[in-house]
C-alpha cells in the first residue's frame, strides 16, 4: 500500500534519488496535462544503487509481486551497474526475465537502462537546461557542449560555472521546466513514455 492507503498500479524502482525525483515529476506532469490518466504510483529506491538493481531487481519489489494489477518500471544507470561490458539490452532482458520467473508477465514490466547514466535524458533539451541553470543565478546563459559519452560530466561542468550544486531537488525542478515532448523524443524516455501511455492511457 502507498502512504495514501491505496494499492499502487505502478511500482517505479530507482537506483538513486536523482532519477526518482526527475522521473516522478515527469509522471506527475503527464497526469496533470492529461497525457496519462490519474493512477497511484509507488516509488521505491534501492539503497544499494545501480549494481544491486541490475543484479537483484526483485529485492525491493517483493511485497508487490503478488498483486496482479501492478506494473513495474525499473530504471538504473548502465555505468556503475557492474554489467558495463554487457549490452544494456541484455541487462534489460535479464531484469524482465527475473520478474517473469517471479510470476509477473513480461507485459507488466519495463526495465530500462540509462546509457551511460541518467543525464543522457537531458540531451534533447540541453540548451534549455543551460538556460534554466543560468536563470537560477541570474547569470547570462552560457554555451556548453553536451558530451553524450559523459553526460554527467557535462551537467556537472555547467553547474560549476553557475555555482550550483547538483542534488535530487534540482533534478525535480528541471523536470518541471523542461519540454516533455522533447524529452520523450529520444530514448530512454521515449520508451518510458510509450509504455506509460499503453498502461495508463487517458479515458
How would you sum up this structure, described in words?
It is built from 8 helices and 4 strands. It has 203 residues and is an alpha/beta fold. It has a 4-stranded parallel β-sheet, with helices on both faces. The radius of gyration is 17 Å and the shape is globular.
Please summarize the sheet with the most strands.
Answer: 4 strands, parallel
For the secondary structure, the number of strands is 4
Helix fraction bin: 40-55%
Structural class: alpha/beta
Weakly predicted, low-confidence segments? none
Shape: globular
CA(first)-CA(last) distance: 24 Å
Defining key terms:
four-stranded parallel β-sheet; 8 helices; 42% helix; alpha/beta
Write the layout of secondary structure elements.
Layout lengths: L9 E5 L2 H16 L8 E5 L3 H7 L15 E7 L10 H14 L7 E6 L11 H11 L14 H11 L6 H10 L2 H4 L5 H12 L3
Parallel strand pairs: 1-2, 1-3, 3-4
Helix pairs in contact: 1-6
What is the gist of this entry?
The chain is of the alpha/beta class. Helices cover 42% and strands 11% of the residues. It is built from 8 helices and 4 strands.
Amino acid at each position: 500500500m502507498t502512504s495514501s492507503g491505496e494499492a499502487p498500479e505502478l511500482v517505479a524502482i530507482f537506483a538513486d534519488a536523482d532519477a526518482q525525483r526527475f522521473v516522478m515529476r515527469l509522471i506527475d506532469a503527464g497526469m496533470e496535462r492529461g497525457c496519462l490518466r490519474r493512477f497511484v504510483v509507488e516509488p521505491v529506491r534501492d539503497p544499494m544503487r545501480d549494481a544491486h538493481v541490475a543484479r537483484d531487481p526483485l529485492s525491493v519489489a517483493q511485497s508487490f509481486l503478488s498483486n496482479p494489477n501492478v506494473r513495474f518500471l525499473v530504471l538504473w544507470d548502465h555505468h556503475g551497474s557492474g554489467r558495463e561490458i554487457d549490452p544494456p539490452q541484455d541487462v534489460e532482458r535479464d531484469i524482465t526475465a527475473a520478474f517473469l520467473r517471479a510470476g509477473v508477465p513480461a507485459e507488466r514490466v519495463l526495465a530500462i537502462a540509462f546509457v551511460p547514466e541518467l543525464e543522457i535524458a537531458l540531451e534533447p533539451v540541453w540548451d534549455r537546461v543551460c538556460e534554466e541553470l543560468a536563470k537560477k543565478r541570474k547569470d547570462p546563459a552560457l554555451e556548453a557542449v553536451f558530451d553524450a559519452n559523459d553526460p554527467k560530466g557535462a551537467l556537472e561542468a555547467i553547474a560549476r560555472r553557475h555555482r550550483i550544486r547538483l542534488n535530487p531537488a534540482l533534478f525535480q525542478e528541471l523536470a518541471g521546466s523542461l519540454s516533455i515532448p522533447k524529452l520523450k523524443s529520444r530514448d530512454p524516455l521515449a520508451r518510458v513514455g510509450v509504455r506509460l501511455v499503453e498502461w495508463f492511457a487517458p479515458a
